[in-house]
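Board work, copied verbatim: Aldehyde dehydrogenase family protein
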Amino acid sequence: MSAEQRLFIGGEWAEPDGGHYEVIDPATEDVVGLAPEASRDQVYAAAAAAREAFGPWSRTAPEVRSAILERAAGIMQAQLVPYAELAQAESGATTGTARGMQVAVGVARFRRYARGALEPVESALPPQINEAGPMGKAGVFGAMTVRQPVGVVTCITSYNNPWANPAGKVAPALAMGNTVVVKPAPQDPLSVFRMAEALEEAGVPRGVVNVVTGSAPAVGEAAVDSPDVDMVSFTGSTGVGQRIAEVCGRGMKRQLMELGGKGAAVVFDDADLDSAVAGIGTTYSFYSGQICTAPTRVLAQRGIYDELVAKLAGYAGFMTVGDPRAKGTVVGPVISAAHRDRIESYVELGRKEGATVVAGGERPDFERGFYVAPTLLADCTNDMRVVREEIFGPVVVVVPFDEEEEGIALANDSDYGLLDYVWSGDVAKAFRVARRLRAGGVGVNTIGRNMEAPFGGFKQSGVGRDVGSYALHAYSEMQSIVWPG
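↓ predict structure ↓
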């Protein structure tokens, strides 16, 4: 990797107008590399290049698009270890996460959408018999729907997974015939340039893929407000998503938004508590809690409340915090010193609000790195800010409830609605409750996901759905074609 990364615009590697900024390893605080600081003009140039490339690329045979995506996946797979080492250095992920959940998932998504490029885009509709009238003679009219690419898509990605998240946007967008401008998170952008190199080597035409970066908000703003951009796909905080939506609304640009979450885990008296604890405990370890799908808000029925709190505290105590490169580490650092301070301020706020810190709550004793101890807050109520607001760190809050209706009401009393969870030994009850939760997805006795199921949120957790074939739909427009029989 070059010490000074260049931008990728119109098939060329360009020097940034704004120089470079340092990308910091969250575990060591060492400099990983120098990321380019694009100017507003360069972002606009990237969007213009994508616009110029859109026509030819959108008319490319699906088999050609599929082959390029498959070749790119093979190149990424061959470089899995060095790519994972870079992702780990940028994001602070453990070795297993960097390899298995970052790069490997990115590769899998490119392969999934290599197949997706070959999925039919036409669907026939039943013929309709029309009587004679103001619209013309009587007749039988056939119709079909065709999914067409949207155009130029800006992909703004999150810092918690510098491979899977951009791959989940870029691959389906390209499969559908769109061109892209990718704006990675400023904390860990270097991995996305490796993705662009793989696509370039795989034969993607000039201008189809462009990558621009910057630490300043102006870079992302330009990637959204460029007149050449037709759609914005964003993963990040609800507050930033709202600002992007305002700009998109003025230009009638299409949006796909995966925003914040405060996932409720409703645990009933008859639940398998060990299963529930293992699922909820992933909040402590998975990306160090920096994941919007985590079951961070535990609603525990009164009969098992004390036992569940004790088990969660014990689980947190076994979480080894430390160097993500070291064997046995379960919880690595969070992304930055600023984010560590933010998480710690929420823990202190919880104390002031009356919550009991049952586990964690103190900064781990490391000379370097942005570490946060897995923390459990009990004796919480649903009006506390630590219960209502997304902390995005290894912090779990527990709220008791008595009856089923109260548990459902508490779960739904949230601005968010991304993924919720239900644990119960009564499967009928679990599914009954799941149907009443206002969330885009519900896990029943599991935190696992089916990667063909639509993913997205209710309320302030997002707009639209992706994953599986739903991502192909998200990056397309629906066109109707009608003809006389």
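The radius of gyration is 24 Å.
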